[in-house]
Write a structure and sequence with these properties.
This protein has two domains: 139 residues, no CATH class; 92 residues, no CATH class. The termini are far apart. Strand 2 and strand 3 form a beta hairpin. With 275 residues, it is of the alpha+beta class. The relative contact order is 0.09. Helix content is 45%, strand content 21%. It is built from ten helices and seven strands. Helix 5 packs parallel to helix 7 and helix 7 crosses helix 8. It has a five-stranded antiparallel β-sheet with strand order 1-2-3-4-5, covered by helices on one side.
Length: 275
């Protein structure tokens, strides 16, 4: 009996190793496909790969990338392709679930040039906090006009060494809803409390819109507490409050001008003082 169990365990282990080997081969193939320069080149190889995933749960969509006005402000109409898949290997009626992956590609709708590609392994449905493998590429030269304009308006000298588009949100501005918080919101309040103006200035000069929002809110709070802002700092605050772009909050996509209006910030400052 023990010998039979050992044989079963060995065979099961061999099946799983074989499945993992096939999975790794598939991911390696996918990573090579994502090296293509344009979306049509990528799609011509990706579509057969996608169709070959007969034993996998897979879904994807192609749509305009609309949650960042920054792209359109500088002449870019961006398309986004997202694809999620879960590898499953079936052996004699048994299913062995392997790893989950998410692929995200952004490309210029005008010439189809891919400027951002991210492939990650994620754990748990809809979560990618635990990334064990990733592929990033970002052609910063494509946005030179955008960077130059930003440097002119914010008096910065930005190094063009981004590993991913700085316009894409990986955080959110909050708490708009008092039931939600964020580490960065706590850091902003700590910067205000300790008069760490440089932290807030670094954020407001960032390309990330949510960073800008936190930086502007923090400078506004400092001014309410009697800290004198220089003419340049005041200019940065007022200019950011008037930016016609969207910001990701903990509830939705909202207009930056609305969440940074004097009325909205006065209300949030009152809550800050009460706490």
């Amino acid at each position: 009996m023990n010998k039979i169990l050992v044989i079963v365990f060995v065979l099961t282990g061999a099946v799983r190793l074989h499945a993992q080997s096939e999975n790794r081969a598939g991911i390696e193939r996918l990573m090579k496909i994502t090296d293509r320069a344009t979306f049509p080149e990528f799609w011509s190889e990706f579509e057969p790969f996608k169709d070959s995933l007969s034993n996998e749960i897979a879904e994807g969509n192609l749509r305009p990338f609309n949650n960042r006005n920054s792209f359109r402000r500088y002449g870019f109409r961006v398309m986004e392709y997202k694809f999620n898949f879960q590898e499953i290997t079936e052996v004699e009626g048994s299913s062995f679930r392997s790893k989950n992956y998410r692929l995200r590609i952004l490309f210029d709708q005008k010439d189809s040039t891919i400027f951002y590609c991210r492939l990650v392994e994620f754990h748990g449905y809809g979560r990618d906090e635990y990334i064990s493998s990733s592929k990033l590429k970002f052609d910063s030269t494509k946005f030179e006009t955008c960077f130059a304009r930003h440097d002119s308006l914010y008096n910065t000298n930005t190094l063009r060494n981004f590993s991913s588009p700085p316009f894409i949100s990986h955080n959110y501005y909050g708490p708009i809803c008092m039931n939600h918080g964020s580490d960065q919101h706590d850091e902003m309040l700590a910067a205000v409390k300790n008069n760490q103006k440089q932290v807030l200035l670094n954020w407001i000069r960032s390309f990330n819109i949510e960073d800008k929002a936190f930086g502007a809110a923090g400078l506004y709070f400092l001014r309410k507490e009697g800290v004198t802002l220089t003419e340049e700092e005041q200019r940065l605050l007022e200019f950011t409050q008037k930016l016609r772009v969207n910001v990701q909050t903990d509830l939705r996509i909202d207009l930056l001008g609305l969440v940074l209006s004097n009325r909205a910030l006065d209300k949030r400052f009152e809550n800050y003082v009460e706490d």
